[in-house]
Task: inverse folding
């Protein structure tokens, strides 16, 4: 395993053990068995380390969106969306530790926002990609012509985000498969 991977593993572990505030570059370096100076040879700042953890260590939405995009016009739309929904809930569940910590630290949030802007990234992009996929399915006649793809994408992603966050506070009464089927059924007007 290379140094960069060791740093990301250490950062992910530190975030989960100590939260964002406790995942200092000093602690990350110590857990990665390297110097802080070596961290900065691979990453410009803590924000870049956090972004790399989000993009490289969590269940990625990009591959799930690519699979969904590849299934346009093929298979069962509800089943395809259900598979994506499960991945999105898993992503948001694991991203909560990073996201919550970033939101709770205004200087870190400002740096993170600037970095997202610089790299043309952000949480709005998966919603836009999902909207394009839903638009293609609508144009193929596979979902109701009255569905607004942008609103449907925002609702689905918002539901996934909300479900993921609820799991930190309460035991949810229904199982994930039942919830996923209900969300997709409602979204597709079934």
Result:
């Amino acid at each position: 395993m290379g140094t960069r991977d060791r740093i990301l593993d250490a950062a992910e572990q530190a975030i989960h053990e100590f939260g964002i505030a406790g995942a200092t570059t000093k602690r990350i370096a110590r857990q990665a068995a390297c110097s802080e100076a070596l961290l900065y040879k691979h990453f410009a700042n803590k924000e870049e380390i956090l972004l790399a953890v989000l993009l490289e260590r969590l269940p990625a939405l990009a591959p799930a969106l690519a699979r969904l995009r590849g299934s346009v016009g093929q298979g069962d739309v509800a089943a395809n969306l259900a598979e994506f929904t499960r991945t999105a809930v898993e992503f948001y569940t694991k991203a909560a530790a990073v996201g919550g910590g970033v939101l709770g630290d205004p200087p870190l949030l400002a740096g993170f926002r600037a970095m997202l802007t610089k790299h043309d990234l952000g949480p709005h992009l998966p919603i836009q990609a999902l909207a394009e996929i839903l638009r293609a399915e609508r144009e193929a006649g596979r979902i109701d012509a009255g569905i607004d793809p942008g609103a449907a994408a925002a609702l689905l992603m918002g539901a996934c985000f909300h479900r993921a966050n609820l799991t930190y506070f309460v035991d949810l009464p229904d199982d994930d498969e039942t919830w996923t089927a209900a969300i997709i059924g409602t979204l597709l007007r079934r």
Summary: The domain at 59-190 is CATH 1.10.357.10 (Tetracycline Repressor; domain 2). The longest helix spans residues 77-103. DSSP finds ten helices and no strands in the chain. The mean pLDDT is 91.
